[in-house]
Design brief:
The chain is of the alpha/beta class and about 240 residues long. The chain is built from seven helices and eleven strands. Helix content is about 35%, strand content about 25%.
Amino acid sequence: MPQPPVFLAGRAELGHDLIVLSGAEGRHAAAVRRMRPGERADVSDGAGLVAECVVAGHSGQGLELAVLARRAVPRPDPSITVVQAIPKGERGELAVEEMTEVGVDRIVPWAAARSVAIWRAERGARSLARWRATAREAAKQSRRAWIPEVTEPMSATDAAAVITSAACAIVLEPGAPQSLGYLSLPESGDLVVIVGPEGGITDEESAAFRTAGAIPASLGPTVQRTSTAGPVAAAVLLSRSARW
């Protein structure tokens, strides 16, 4: 049986017995999904709370959903953080979309030394907004109760601090002596993966990450694009955890 679609609303709205989807969510439900009375739909706040609903009807305010039940989905553990070097063009949004669908919990845009794209001022704000909107829509499509956090852009120094606080951190480096699929991993905590830019991580960045505690690892004998490496690495880690 097909799974019901997921829509987003504020946590306060999920506490009502009748949820009214308005604005963009309501238009999508009514005009794009063409939801009809009696059809099932789930509404999430994107932070673990899900209301299981049935369409009650339409009103001038939007689509009305009657709540059948509510459930709280625990925060995923182990959690997966990907420190993603900022790619050029639309590859960043592609990476965010795929990482969200796979199950990444936090995405850190990283202004690597060799990143071609540079986020500054208004351009940076627009790019970050697109990443966050992409994570939101991909979370709905993949029926996630938790929308991945997309942080503010970080420098290599900031990324090193993320590594220090992780339960386990891996920096992807082609030719590294260890393969990601064979590393010993903790069962709980934050697993961090650092993905470099197309031009590769500089020696200075690599040294800083290793000093902070990151383990160099490869994704096999081939070299992947920066927009591909994050989703693949996350899938490898999740396949070895209780989450999958």
